[in-house]
Specification:
The complex is a heterodimer of chains A (600) and B (69).
Chain A (H helix, E strand, L loop, with lengths): L17 H4 L1 H32 L11 H33 L6 H24 L23 H31 L7 H32 L8 H12 L1 H16 L1 H5 L3 E3 H14 L16 H13 L1 H21 L17 H24 L1 H7 L3 H31 L6 H27 L23 H30 L15 E3 L11 H27 L17 H22 L1
Parallel strand pairs in A: 1-2
Helix pairs in contact in A: 2-3, 2-4, 2-15, 2-17, 3-4, 3-5, 3-6, 4-5, 5-6, 6-7, 6-8, 6-10, 6-18, 8-15, 10-12, 10-18, 13-15, 13-16, 15-16, 15-17, 16-17
Chain B lengths: L4 H24 L6 H20 L15
Helix pairs in contact in B: 1-2
Classes of the chains: A mainly alpha (600), B mainly alpha (69).
């Protein structure tokens, strides 16, 4: 490790806040954040409705509407909340680290508008599922593959949302290329490197779901295709469905690498190690989706084994992150007087909700990693597949590692992009701690319930004539724990929204901390140049995807056809012409060779 | 106080998963603790932590915290 050279991060801000440096971009980031907070509020409320409904404590909806509520919860939280926050963070990362504004803010607002419009279009049919007043619904859950079918507006909205993210990526790449022309010999600044590597696998993986929506699901819902191949659309969904987890996680990792060391009072332990981690995610994120399909009968076990192996390799960058981030925190604590093997923990800034929220999120993510290993193992996955265990797992990942980190860093970002002081640090601190406690209670009961075969995705987990016998305690006890945890989480969510709204209503001040992120102990000068060769890493990622997916997809299409067994490649509206076309093809097949040979 | 109020809050928060998971771990070892017993033991533990934290310290106060961001 080199001496404490540190990179020149944050120097360019010259003590100014982000809104002073980039007022136009700050407005965009602020708007993206508010979009994500609205999604978080509505999605969180739907979560409370489900918790109370499943436990039969309070039923404000009919059980037949449960899937509409579940879809709203999943889509708003897993896609809208996370990705709107991500585009805000990535815009901040690009502009701050390159020290330049975006090239054309009209283009920037265009992609934001596309994302917002897409969200609104997708939400209309989901909400329509809650009322009989309109003839539309999209109760297809966050995992929207066939055979469940949604109203075309849902698929159209999703497609627009994804295209919006693609254009956002182009906007950031455009900024990077402009910077590169002016700085041909500079290393890519770490935040920009993180954005670019994340974009690499996002383009690669979201192409799958875009094709599934545009080629199959949207035309099918419009009645153009009579049927689709459910296994094919399911595989194409999971081709995107697992990498999207890392799409949420990469901005979280970015915050753990760039902000956590800074608020700890120290420096990032290693810039090169951070680059290695992001390269590994770029390469390994996508060829893993089949591990969600271990129980699908139409995919051979060998392909599933390949997906499992790729997934297990993903533990490496997560463990590297755990090491680097904890080392950076320890460095910060020791810089501020912390001593001893564990005594340095006391010197960490636990009073700061930004730090405490991120640290607690990291602890929960470690637990999520362990339950994720169970999910990823082919044999033990059979024990927990489609049970409440899975719900417990992803409430630790997206529901805590991502959501809690996003909420915690909001307390740093909101003053930066609004120029207003955080309303109440003590309430903010209580909020992040309450989230941690609520999630411990809820996810623990979900994991335990899953081990006892409590099903997920149902309004009625218990039914007449079938008794679930938990290994430990009773079902009523598990339900009580989930209701308690869910209620605490909702209280925490309300506190979060109170803090951000009150902050938004505050007055502009001019004594806020500068827009800076962590300097490094070992800087980019210690990183091999090959790490910045993004074309190489994207190329390897493509090769791995081809190796993991070419044969399974070919086998699925070979066995069931593009449109499923008995499906026709002819659109429904030309279906009446199909006999004529088929007869013509058969006629030509019979007579053309003879005619051609005679002609020769 | 031996630790800061914020530190105490975080220690109490960390005690919750320890208590919840301890009950599960004990069950694996054949020791069954009822929910009511867990709550009572939990309250005792949390009270003990609070008493320890607010008791006069040994003179080694926690290092001061920066204002953060």
């Amino acid at each position: 490790m080199s001496a404490e050279t540190g990179s020149a991060t944050g120097v360019a801000s010259e003590g100014r806040t982000y809104i002073d440096q980039f007022p136009g971009e700050a407005r965009l980031v602020r708007t993206a954040f508010w979009s994500s907070f609205v999604a978080l509020g509505i999605g969180g409320l739907m979560g409370l409705v489900q918790v109370l409904h499943r436990a039969d404590v309070l039923r404000v909806i009919d059980s037949t509407d449960y899937y509409a509520v579940l879809t709203l919860h999943g889509v708003l939280l897993a896609l809208t909340f996370t990705i709107f926050f991500l585009v805000g963070i990535f815009t901040w990362a690009i502009t701050t680290s390159l020290d330049r504004g975006l090239e054309d803010l009209r283009f920037t607002w265009a992609w934001y508008g596309l994302m917002a419009g897409g969200t609104a279009l997708a939400a209309i049919p989901i909400l329509g599922g809650l009322t009989d007043a309109v003839e539309m619904s999209a109760s297809v859950l966050f995992t929207f593959y066939a055979p469940l079918q949604a109203h075309p507006l849902f698929y159209l909205g999703l497609a627009l949302f994804v295209v919006g993210t693609w254009l956002a990526g182009l906007d950031w790449i455009r900024s990077y290329l402009a910077w590169r022309r002016e700085n041909p010999d500079e290393r890519i600044p770490l935040p920009t490197f993180m954005v670019l590597t994340t974009l690499g696998f996002w383009y690669l993986s979201s192409l799958g779901v875009a094709l599934a929506v545009v080629v199959f699901l949207l035309p099918w819902s419009l009645g153009i295709w009579e049927q689709v191949n459910p296994l094919l659309t399911r595989t194409m969904f999971w081709y995107f469905g697992h990498p999207v987890v890392y799409f949420w996680l990469m901005p979280v990792y970015m915050m753990w690498y760039l902000m956590l060391p800074k608020v700890s009072g120290g420096k990032l332990f290693s810039d090169p190690l951070a680059r290695v981690v992001f390269v590994l995610f770029l390469v390994l994120s996508t060829p893993t989706g089949i591990h969600h399909q271990y129980l699908d009968p139409g995919i051979a076990e060998g392909f599933k084994f390949i997906a499992m192996t790729n997934t297990m390799f993903l533990l490496l960058p997560s463990l590297l992150t755990a090491f680097t981030v904890v080392a950076s925190m320890e460095h910060g604590a020791r810089q501020r007087g912390g001593t001893g093997t564990f005594g340095w923990l006391r010197a960490l800034p636990w009073r700061d909700p930004v730090f405490t929220g991120m640290a607690l999120a990291g602890v929960m993510f470690a637990a999520a990693g362990f339950s994720g290993m169970v999910n990823a193992g082919m044999n033990i996955n059979y024990l927990v597949h489609n049970t409440f265990w899975i719900v417990g797992h992803f409430h630790l990942t997206v529901g805590t590692a991502v959501a809690l980190t996003f909420m915690a860093v909001t307390y740093w970002f909101l003053p930066q992009v609004s120029g207003k002081r955080l309303w109440n640090r003590s309430v903010a601190l209580a909020q992040v701690v309450l989230w941690f406690v609520g999630m411990v209670l809820m996810s623990n009961a979900m994991h335990r319930g899953g081990l006892d075969s409590v099903p997920r995705r149902t309004a009625e987990p218990q039914y007449r004539g079938f008794e679930i016998e938990p290994t430990l305690g009773t079902m009523a006890e598990l339900d009580a724990q989930i209701v308690l945890g869910g209620t605490i989480l909702f209280v925490s969510l309300v506190l979060f929204l109170v803090v951000v709204v009150m902050t938004g209503l505050g007055d502009r001040v001019d004594d806020l901390p500068a827009n800076e992120y962590a300097e490094t102990l070992s800087g980019p000068e210690d990183a091999p140049l090959v790490l910045d060769n993004l074309k190489l890493w994207v190329g390897i990622a493509v090769v791995l995807v081809v190796l993991a997916y070419a044969l399974p997809l070919a086998a699925i299409v070979d066995r069931g056809g593009l449109f499923g067994p008995g499906g026709s490649p002819f659109p429904v509206f030309v279906g009446c012409l199909e006999p004529t076309v088929s007869a013509s093809v058969a006629f030509l097949g019979d007579h053309l060779p003879a005619a051609v040979s005679g002609w020769w | 106080m031996r630790i800061s109020p914020a530190g105490l809050l975080v220690v109490l928060a960390f005690a919750v998963p320890a208590l919840v998971q301890a009950r599960t771990v004990l069950a694996f070892a054949g020791v069954h603790v009822s929910p009511l017993q867990t709550v009572l033991i939990g309250l005792l533990v949390l009270t003990a932590v609070v008493l320890w934290a607010v008791a006069p310290g040994s003179g080694t106060e926690a290092p001061s915290e920066p204002n953060g961001g």
